[in-house]
Amino acid sequence: MSHSPDPALLIAQIKDKLGIGEDKVYAVMGEFAEPEELVEAGRRIRGMGYTKIDAMTPFPVHGIDEAIGVPYSKIGWIAVCGALAGITTAQVLIYYVGKIDYPLIIGGKPLFDFTYSIPPTFELAVLFTAITTFLCTWGLSGLPRLYHPSMNYRNMHRASDDRFLLVVEANDPKFDAQKTAQDMRSVGANDVEVVEG
Amino acid sequence: MSVVVQDPQLMAVNPPLVQGARDLHDLTDQISSVVEAKVYETPLKYWITLTFTGSIVLLLGAMLTYLVNTGIGVWGNNRPVGWAWDITNFVFWIGIGHAGTLISAILFLFRQKWRTSINRSAEAMTLFAVMCAGIFPLFHTGRPWRAFYWLFPIPNTDLNIWQNFRSPLIWDVFAVTTYFTVSLLFWFTGLVPDLASLRDRATSKIRQVVFGILSLGWRGSARHWRHYEQAYLILAGISTPLVLSVHSVVSFDFATSVIPGWHTTIFPPYFVAGAIFSGFACVMTLLLIARWTLNLQNLITIKHLDNMNKIILVTGSVVGYAYCTEFFIAWYSGSIYERFTFLNRAFGPYWWAAWSMYSCNVFIPQLYWFKKMRTNLWVMFIISITTNIGMWFERFVIIATSLTRDFLPSSWGYFHPTWVDICTFIGTIGLFLTLFLLFARFLPMIAMSEVKGVASQEKHTFAGQVEGSVSHR
């Protein structure tokens, strides 16, 4: 017999794991008006020894990944696996259907042949690649997620509009609310705020 | 930001893609305002048009109900023309969709920045066109609710049989289904950052919840963008061969048969070129209307339209070249049936359809050699429509004329569409326009995040520019 845990406790645990709660600090956030300023500030913040840095921007800013140390996406390899799965599925399906389960001689053509299986195989490879890529884009980004502590930042709504935000997360070993906020101001960030979880 | 001195020479050669002295916030405002307008703020002409096209959708519903109730004998398909308007319309609509994928995927891979203002609406157009296309083969089965077992390899006790994978018709099912799914995923992926913008701007509870869910919690983090950009590249990369394969597979439906006029190896590239040709023309028609009604002149500039017209000229000429090749091969093959079919096309009972097609597809687009024509809004609007008329006739000519007069003169005939044929086709046009109008009003029609990226880059090239400094030539 398994006894179900107290839902309130479970929610508290999940919140704890996600770093959500009034008593928690998520990060220090600040904003910039221009993408170049963000990249430059990101580089300097990283130079100060911070490692858990993030940026939130209305469009992909080039050079930000190197500046704040975001690793390269591995989604390409997952897409390749999707393509292989599609090719395998199609070949097995067409072989099984034509040769094993429902052999029918039509126009004297072979029951299975690589040549006529090419179009459906290609299409399934594309289909599986697309679905894998699509799901992994969100999955690897931790989405869908309806709440995130960054929403508590007063200028968060402008990250999808015209501002470029820099974030130093609280789980950074070098993080100290006062000191980090000062560092953020020193690299030129406006509206620097310690954001609650 | 330092102010770079504006270089008028550079602007004349290569005018900016986003015009007017705007900042990023203005762009968000301009594009979102259409979506956020109150019912009474949207021009009345929009609602009147929507009511009109919506009533045509009702006509489509009535026609399909009548068809299912009565049987497919209500269409004009009969001996010797067993495939007629239904497959003509299917190929026509699928072809329209191709430009959307070309703009969103192929131009993306070629780093053509001018695509950003038009790619969202072109992708939406693809989806709606494929929906319209799907109606015809689905209802041609007569019993569409059972068609899933006939079309897709689903184990079932309904028929206890499997599909024949040697037939190009099943390849078509795979191609079109994949095409629709991939286009939908691509389109939605592009929409997510913009939906997040709308979520962040939302003032009412309903909008916050709806856009909150649709945007998946997107917050534009660098850790999102790195996956996103990679994924977008992959989707563009696979859509490119996909779009070429879809119309190739559609052309296999004809090319693998033994009917003179169908049995030719030129069909795949010929169909793909024709598809892009008609699709670009359709994007042009829709964009010109949207640009005018929603005042998007600064985002959809003459340069965008000029570029599209160049593509229409190229693909139209490719189609013209394919017509010549067909005639040459018909003569060169030495087959009397091939020769007859092509002479019959141009001078037989369907001469009027064939010459409409040659004029609309080959002769009229030649006007685009002149820049004056490529940049004249009325000229391009008219040509965009004649092109689509011509491309519909192309499919009709290929399908009907090849079937009306085949090997045996005793089985010759002439095809007449019934009123149900005509109303069903008009109905799909209504469905297409209705879906597009709904999209243009309720979702951001221009890819905000992409346009911002382009605008931000252009600021360096064109810094210090003021509105009106660019002369439209």
Keywords, separated by commas or semicolons:
heterodimer, A: 197 residues, alpha+beta, Alpha-Beta Plaits, 2 domains, 4-stranded antiparallel beta sheet, 6 helices, 46% helix, B: 473 residues, mainly alpha, Formate dehydrogenase/DMSO reductase fold, 17 helices, disordered N terminus, disordered C terminus
Could you describe the 3D structure shown?
The complex is a heterodimer of chains A (197) and B (473). By secondary structure, chain A is of the alpha+beta class. Chain A folds into two domains: 25-70 and 148-196, Alpha-Beta Plaits, CATH 3.30.70; 75-140, no CATH class. In chain A, 46% of the residues lie in helices and 13% in strands. In chain A, α4 packs antiparallel against α5. The model of chain A has no long low-confidence stretch (mean pLDDT 85). In chain B, α4 runs antiparallel to α5 (119-140) and α13 (351-363) packs antiparallel against α15 (377-404). Chain B is mostly helical and 473 residues long. Chain B has helices at 8-13, 24-36, 44-70, 85-109, 119-140, 147-151, 168-201, 205-214, 222-255, 267-293, 302-333, 336-347, 351-363, 371-374, 377-404, 419-442, 448-461. Chain B has a single domain (8-461), classed as Formate dehydrogenase/DMSO reductase fold, CATH 1.20.1630.10. Classes of the chains: A alpha+beta (197), B mainly alpha (473). At the A-B interface, β2, α3, α4 and α5 of A face α2, α7, α9 and α17 of B.
